[in-house]
From TrEMBL:
<dbReference type="InterPro" id="IPR001633">
    <property type="entry name" value="EAL_dom"/>
</dbReference>
<dbReference type="InterPro" id="IPR000644">
    <property type="entry name" value="CBS_dom"/>
</dbReference>
<dbReference type="InterPro" id="IPR000160">
    <property type="entry name" value="GGDEF_dom"/>
</dbReference>
<dbReference type="InterPro" id="IPR035919">
    <property type="entry name" value="EAL_sf"/>
</dbReference>
<dbReference type="InterPro" id="IPR043128">
    <property type="entry name" value="Rev_trsase/Diguanyl_cyclase"/>
</dbReference>
<dbReference type="InterPro" id="IPR052155">
    <property type="entry name" value="Biofilm_reg_signaling"/>
</dbReference>
<dbReference type="Pfam" id="PF00571">
    <property type="entry name" value="CBS"/>
</dbReference>
<protein>
    <submittedName>
        <fullName>Diguanylate cyclase (GGDEF)-like protein</fullName>
    </submittedName>
</protein>
<dbReference type="InterPro" id="IPR046342">
    <property type="entry name" value="CBS_dom_sf"/>
</dbReference>
<dbReference type="InterPro" id="IPR029787">
    <property type="entry name" value="Nucleotide_cyclase"/>
</dbReference>
<dbReference type="GO" id="GO:0003824">
    <property type="term" value="F:catalytic activity"/>
</dbReference>
<dbReference type="Pfam" id="PF00563">
    <property type="entry name" value="EAL"/>
</dbReference>
<dbReference type="Pfam" id="PF00990">
    <property type="entry name" value="GGDEF"/>
</dbReference>
């Protein structure tokens, strides 16, 4: 409800102000001195009374205009309406003086001036309402635009999201079908990006994704599209790419862009990716088929290694179904107790004594079919199952290790357990050290093996983890050394005590002179850093002779023992040492792809390995 102030409703008319001044003079006059005059019409009839105040107030008016009407005049049938209109007219024209309590005169007020103020305010309110309506309409359009942006664009990177990607993909299918052209769909996944989130935090990972998205945006034409499906998955729609070379060139530009380091918070990060490609219409005529096939090709690219691009082929569909089958079976494997452990001895190349053993995981699916770790471990890492599986492996290892204490083994005997970088988050909840202590074991009895890539790609998180274990006495071994990429200067700042040379280098020493020189260089570097060296994949006596000559400390491979059950390991620990001196005199085989270095165990391997 509007409140009107009297000051706002004063009549601005100067004439009415003068009239009001007369009113004020009359109001101060003696009321008892008022006189009245009778007025008669020309026909002699009495017309009414006129006061001297009226005559003074309106000196130029005729008396007839100033008559005070008598009560009870005869009325015609419609006089009620006439009288009502007359009263309204008189009321509207009536003026009232406005005087402050202290006697200060302000002016006059009338119904007309009040109505005028209301009309003025109504016009103001109308204008304000129009402005408000325009503002609300603009805000509604802005909210609509924001809603559409949120519905179709990724809030983190600003790239098109899954919804818009699906629409554009269907549009591309329709256009290409109508025009008879081809296009390609690239499915890109950043390798081990989960490690970044686990070690450096999700905030760091988000900023890294924004930088990656900006780089991707610069690589596509205006007619093409790059979208973020979620997490670390991106898709590219490349129109008019009937030529495979065009797709490969785009993939190379993507890899080259990712090869440039990303500096955030003083940390230089390197991101790699795997790309799968499906093509319309060769690899599918529906959006679902194209995405599924590009996804299958991407997983195949991951198997090819860092920075690989793979085109879809029908065989990949069966591989994809197999991956899905393994993933589903993994979730039941722990409950069904389908996992088991085997142990592979590690032997001193100086004394022939077993100085340690690596614990290896085996999965007999449904109690019958053996599934290779190379097949199920990557899937376990991708699905997050590796945390629970790794925890089970450590508990089982500790349970068996308790039995080793009765053998009074040398203090430097170590049990090697592989650790995936995907277990870092799990480690924060179920610490490796806490598990060892729960079983009442000495931490110095254990050795954690980390791959070269996992140790250096997740530098900050892994460094903290490694230092924590090293301080407690757990040895740290860099597994598969030479197959990844690492900052070698960082080794001296971490409590790493051992390097494991990958079996591929040992295997090719006979056929490849360069591999032999690489092995020599790696052993020499480890010696300069004061690190112990373990060679994997030792299968022939001549390899022992070469490795011992290069200064390698420990050998592991089929020459000494296949991975065996725990009871068999106990038997071998109680057996005499291996006759390393006999191996050192073994002749070096002739070079060539058909030499002993290319086969399995040599014929004399069994005679050299005691037990």
């Amino acid at each position: 409800m509007q409140t009107l102030q009297v000051r706002d409703c004063l009549d601005p008319s100067a004439r009415r102000v003068r009239v009001d001044e007369r009113y004020r003079d009359l109001a101060e006059a003696d009321v008892e001195g008022m006189r009245a005059f009778a007025v008669f019409a020309e026909n002699g009839g009495f017309a009414g009374l006129v006061t001297d105040r009226q005559a003074t107030l309106f000196p130029s008016r005729r008396f007839g205009d100033l008559l005070t009407r008598r009560q009870g005049e005869a009325l015609r049938p419609n006089d009620d309406a006439v009288r009502a209109l007359h009263r309204m007219r008189v009321a509207v024209q009536a003026h009232l003086p406005v005087i402050e309590p202290d006697g200060t005169y302000l002016g006059v007020i009338s119904v007309q001036s009040v109505l005028a103020e209301l009309v003025r305010r109504a016009e103001i309110y109308r204008q304000e309402r129009e402005v408000l309506v325009e503002q609300l309409e603009a805000e509604r359009e802005s909210l609509r635009a924001q809603y559409l942006h949120l519905a179709y664009y990724d809030s983190l990177t600003g790239l098109p999201n899954r919804q818009l990607f699906q629409e554009r993909l269907n549009q591309a299918i329709g256009q290409s079908s109508h025009r008879g052209t081809e296009f390609s769909l690239l499915f890109l996944d950043l390798n081990r990006f989960k490690d970044v989130n686990d070690t450096l935090g999700h905030s760091f990972g988000d900023r890294l994704l924004k930088v990656v998205a900006e780089r991707f945006s610069k690589l596509v034409r205006q007619t093409d599209m790059v979208a973020r499906l979620g997490g670390d998955e991106f898709t590219f729609i490349l129109h008019d790419t009937g030529d495979v070379d065009t797709v490969n060139a785009t993939a190379r530009r993507i890899f080259d862009e990712l090869a440039e380091p990303i500096a955030l918070d003083g940390i230089q990060s390197y991101v790699s990716a795997s790309i799968g490609v499906s093509r319309y219409p060769a690899d599918g005529v529906t959006a679902e088929a194209l995405v599924m096939n590009a996804d299958a090709a991407m997983y195949r690219a991951k198997e090819d290694g860092i920075g690989a691009c793979h085109f879809y082929s029908p065989k990949l569909h069966d591989r994809m179904l197999n991956r899905l089958d393994i993933s589903n079976a993994l979730h039941r494997a722990l409950e069904r107790e389908e996992f088991s452990l085997v142990w592979q001895p590690q032997v001193s190349l100086t004394t022939g004594v077993i100085v340690g053993a690596e614990v290896l995981l085996r999965w007999n699916r449904d109690g019958m079919k053996a599934v290779s770790p190379a097949e199920f471990v990557p899937i376990a890492e991708e699905t997050g199952m590796i945390g629970a599986i790794g925890d089970w492996v450590l508990h089982e290892t500790c349970r068996y290790a308790s039995r080793l204490e009765a053998l009074q083994l040398a203090c430097d005997f170590r049990i090697a357990v592989n650790f995936s970088p995907m277990q870092l988050r799990w480690h924060k909840e179920k610490s490796v050290l806490r598990t060892i202590h729960e079983h009442g074991l000495d931490c110095r009895r254990f050795k954690i093996e980390l791959t070269e890539n996992s140790l250096f790609l997740n530098k900050e998180g892994m460094a903290e983890f490694v230092r924590e274990l090293g301080a407690a006495g757990v040895a740290i071994s860099v597994d598969d050394f030479g197959t990844g990429y690492s900052n070698l200067s960082s080794l001296k700042h971490l409590p790493v005590s051992e390097l494991k040379i990958d079996r591929s280098f040992i295997h090719d020493m006979q056929a490849s002179h360069s591999d032999k020189q690489l092995v020599l260089a790696m052993i020499g570097m480890a010696q300069m850093l004061g690190l112990r060296v373990v060679a994997e994949g030792v299968e022939h006596p001549w390899q022992v002779a070469v490795l011992k000559d290069f200064g390698c400390d420990i050998g592991q491979g089929y020459l000494f023992s296949r991975p065996v059950a725990f009871d068999e390991l106990l038997r071998r620990l109680e057996a005499p040492p291996f006759d390393v001196r006999a191996m050192l005199s073994a002749p070096y085989p002739p070079s060539g792809p058909d030499g002993p270095g290319r086969g399995g165990m040599s014929a004399d391997a069994g005679t050299v390995a005691a037990g």
